[in-house]
Amino acid sequence: MQKNPQKDQTLGWEALDRISLGIARGLEYLHRGCNTRILHFDIKPHNILLDENFSPKISDFGLAKICDRKESIVSMLDARGTAGYIAPEVFCRNFGGVSHKSDVYSYGMVLSDMVGGRRNINAEAENTSEIYFPHWIYKRLELDEELGLQSIMNEEDKVRARKMIIVSLWCIQTDPSNRPAIRQVIEMLEGSVDSLEMPPKPYLSSPPKVSA
Predict the structure, then answer these.
(1) Exposed site from 12, 76, 79, 191, fewest CB < 10 Å?
(2) What are the residue ranges of helices labelled H in 11-154?
(3) What digits encode the pLDDT tens for the residues 147-195?
(4) Spacing of C-alpha 38 from chain mean position
(5) What distance in Å separates the CA atoms of residue 16 and residue 29, rounded to the nearest whole number?
(6) Minimal CA–CA distance to 158: which of 135, 182, 141?
């Protein structure tokens, strides 16, 4: 996530909440606000620009694909995206069809990065500093444990963090049909955390090494 170096600072949970909602609204515009649907296919922190007010802008449309808004499944000849953020169906059709839900998966991984404060890496790692974050945080939610995240200062921070985690886990469901559309993501982020159901445990594994 790129930002002005003069404004470089640790972002609080209120700012992260606002940024996550801003990115989701940007994706909704691409998916629903244009005459034709634009699928980005490379949603990752490096392609989210923050202005001086930390308002996010989605950038780099080099891998984007334009399709009819009525199309639910997109035809693709080759995989596109960045390792760690690419949806499973993009590199293997056995997981389902490629669609706007593929961007939702990438958004979920970005949201997970924001919550964890680090890049999601090896799911098989034994070293705790390399544990795949979604796997680690899902278990904490499942056991109703403290989230163990840095910079949580009060109950409001805890609520924001919990909401972002649950939304991110819904977004990275392996089966695209289990993921919410980006419009539903916005509703979840704007709603109460108490109204959110715990998502099924996603198929958690190390992301494949796919080059753009």
Answers:
(1) 191
(2) 13-28, 88-91, 100-116, 133-142
(3) 777 778 899 999 999 999 999 999 999 999 999 999 999 999 999 999 9
(4) 17
(5) 20
(6) 141
- Token pair in block for residue 77: 């000849």
**Is residue 182 a contact partner of residue 101, using CB atoms and an 8 Å limit?**
no
Q: Do β-strands 56-58 and 65-67 pair in parallel, antiparallel, or remain unpaired?
A: unpaired
The domain ranges of the chain are: 5-69+80-195
Q: What is the DSSP letter of 163?
A: H
- Segment 40-69 shows an average pLDDT of 93
Q: Choose among 93, 111, 63: nearest CA to 211.
A: 63
pLDDT tens digits, one per residue of 120-149:
444 444 444 445 678 778 888 877 777 777
Q: Measure the CA–CA gap between 136 and 143, rounded to whole angstroms.
A: 11
Fold of 5-69+80-195: Transferase(Phosphotransferase); domain 1 (1.10.510)
Residue entry with tokens 């034994």 = 126
- Any idea which residue has 């910079």 for tokens? 151
Kindly calculate the radius of gyration of the chain based on its CA atoms and give it in whole angstroms: 16
Q: How far apart are CA 127 and CA 85, in angstroms?
A: 22
DSSP bridge pairs for 106: none
Sign of the dihedral defined by the CA atoms of residues 2, 179, 190, 68, in that order: positive
Catalytic residue among 42, 103, 113, 157: 42
Residue 42 known to be catalytic: yes
Statement: residue 7 has pLDDT above 70: no
Query: The whole model's pTM is what?
Result: 0.84
